[in-house]
Amino acid sequence: MTTATLESRNLRTAILALLGAVAMLGLGYAAVPLYELFCRVTGFGGTTQRATESDAALAERLAQSAGGKQISIRFDGNVAAGLGWSFRPEQVTDTVTIGQRDMAIYLARNDSDRPITGTATFNVEPEQAGAYFNKIQCFCFTEQTLQPGQAVRMPVLYFVDPKALDDPNMEGVEQITLSYTFHEAKE
Length: 187
Hints:
By secondary structure, the chain is α+β, with helices and mostly antiparallel strands. Helices cover 28% and strands 37% of the residues.
């Protein structure tokens, strides 16, 4: 093998290694948004769905033909350590008709002596229910700023998609838990 051939092969190997490293770096940056997109589309990991009023109206029409089956919804509220807020659902459980809109109210209070902006993360249990739990309006869509001592009522307008009745993985599910955890927003 000649020196020129060896140098050519080494250069090609170096270029391929550099391209591989750049591709891995790009995938590293794309992983989080792609994973979030995957979770939103599939409901993976208990990720809830966002819905419009027209989606809710369609679900309500479908639910009427499904016979008015009901399901229990349990509400859970938590705060991250050091947040300085108290946060809880106004009502811990509710029984709703699948496909019909309902509203849950969460109560938040800033117990600290400084303004705090919080953001809520959420999930649904059991995980397979995430694909069918649709939120139309939610405090979790935006950051919330509370002044010292300020208390607020925060609504969640939601429905459970009637398609859940056709999913064999949802068979036997009698209760869905909607859980929120508030964290201090990063600036």
